[in-house]
Amino acid sequence: EGDYGALQRNNNDEVWVSQRARPRRNRKSPAIRSMVRENIVTPSNFILPLFIHDEDFNQPIDSMPGCERHSLDSMLREVGESFELGVKTFVLFPKVPDELKTNYGEEAYNPEGIVPRAIRMIKEAHPEAIVVTDVALDPYSDQGHDGVVENGKILNDVTINQLCKQVICQARAGADIVAPSDMMDGRVKAIRDALDSEGFTDVSILSYTAKYASAYYGPFRDALDSHPGFGDKKTYQQDPANGRESLIEAALDSAEGADMLMVKPGMPYLDIIRRLKDYSPLPIAAYHVSGEYAMIKAACQNGWLNERDVVLETLTCFKRAGADIILTYYAKQAAQWIKEDGLY
Ligand code: PBG
Question: Which of 26, 74, 246, 315 might form a disulfide with 210, Cβ 3.0–4.6 angstroms?
Fold first, then answer.
């Protein structure tokens, strides 16, 4: 009477579909779910990128609502507040005025440039904070490229020479970790040798190992005013269609002395994160880039997604894919949500 064939009755005459495994038992309460949870994001996994400029005001970035170019004082406040929430690591990106930009990007190793000054300010006020610097010429290049340009080509080895000067300048100012994002061949070894020969054996290298020529960097280039002056970055950044190529880069970077390997962008490249995790025992970082941030923001501003839930889910998925470290513009906000919810 109303029962279908598959159903049986148990000893209490209740409907029963006979089966041993019921995966839902491990999901039956918050306590059980948290006991069996495989991956948890904590604020100490995050690196917060900070845009800085040499002005005494903050400049909002239209394509990244909620982010701004900070004055150095404001940057310092942001570091302090984030540190209180458990975010301990920061990466600096300078917006450089046009008059300081050149093909060789000499401003990249000016000891009184904005990045060395910012590093010194942070390390003085918060000695426990970890400062990461981006290594590439693009913020300083009048060509809008990561390297030195000659006849429309990006010169690999000449660029590395400039990057080594940049790294030594950053290390002298107190950088804890340098992060080459330029994708020149052989730069990790050259940077390691340069650091070591100047006595900076403790400065770490977080290499942008698998960095793709991605359309998701648009808002970042708005923030730094660093759109390529001509062409694109496809002769040095990887083709989004290629996965195995990342393993070549990972093999080279680890042999050359990288301490951590990064995949960038994040969400569309979770397979690459997993491949590098399986390939290398080094810590793996994922960069949740500006365009990914902008997409989430836009949808949430329209009321189409729940920002808190979608961000915490996204960050957890990076960990599940294999990321130990996550660079995200949401670092401070996510740390706040995690704290409010007592999520760990
Ligand atoms: C440049 C650099 C880029 C980003 C980090 N370092 C942009 C680019 O390669 O053009 C992008 C970060 C983001 O989009 O959030 N060396």
Answer: 246
